[in-house]
Design brief:
It comes from Elachura formosa (spotted wren-babbler). Pfam families: Mesd. Its main location: endoplasmic reticulum. The chain contains 5 helices and 6 strands. With about 190 residues, the protein is of the alpha+beta class. It has a domain of about 90 residues: ACT domain (Alpha-Beta Plaits). A 6-stranded antiparallel β-sheet has the order 2-3-1-4-5-6. The longest helix has 17 residues.
Length: about 190
């Protein structure tokens, strides 16, 4: 058992132990828990539109942190990307969206949202900006207003690019391999 010490004789280690004892007995409020320990919000299935898969994602991401990647069109410098995305962040802030921005390349930025339920509204805002080439959200790539003709393919996904590269490599090596259920006949 620890000896009884006068409170005036406590050092930093004694104060730290005392604080740990107090916190051990405290009940932590649900809002103070880290996100991964909070219980999931109940989903109201009456609000889900079966024709729109995005409505399901909106409801499941509500209250959770979510990140989206944004590409600035043209060939901007990192400083120019910083300025453009700062304007977008300011506009979103003025519309009461809590968004943090991180520059990850000369033309790429990450927008981090505290509440993922608003991600699709923010995505709609961003793709309507003149200098937005594309927005990547939950694996889906949405082309923006600033995308050139080769980039304007609706809802392409990132893994397809890697698959196309692999297919091109196979064809260049002379190996004709297909993973489809029905093969097309090739003329020799």
């Amino acid at each position: 058992p620890p000896k009884k010490k006068d409170i005036r004789d406590y050092n930093d280690a004694d104060m730290a132990r005392l604080l740990e004892q107090w916190e051990k007995d405290d009940d932590i409020e649900e809002g103070d828990l880290p996100e991964h320990k909070r219980p999931a919000a109940p989903i109201d299935f009456s609000k889900i539109d079966p024709g729109k898969p995005e409505s399901i994602l909106k409801l499941t991401k509500k209250g959770k942190t979510l990140m989206m990647f944004v590409t600035v069109s043209g060939n901007p410098s990192e400083k120019e990307t910083e300025e453009i995305t700062s304007l977008w962040q300011g506009s979103l802030f003025n519309a009461n969206y809590d968004v943090q921005r991180f520059i990850v390349g000369s033309n790429r930025a990450i927008f981090m949202l505290r509440d993922g339920g608003y991600a699709w509204e923010i995505k709609d805002f961003l793709i309507n900006q003149e200098r937005c080439a594309d927005v990547t959200l939950e694996g889906q790539v949405y082309p923006g207003k600033g995308a050139d003709g080769s980039e304007k393919v609706k809802n392409k996904t990132k893994p397809e690019k890697a698959k196309k590269k692999k297919d091109a490599e196979k064809k260049s090596n002379g190996v004709k391999e297909d993973n489809r259920a029905t093969k097309q006949r090739e003329e020799l």
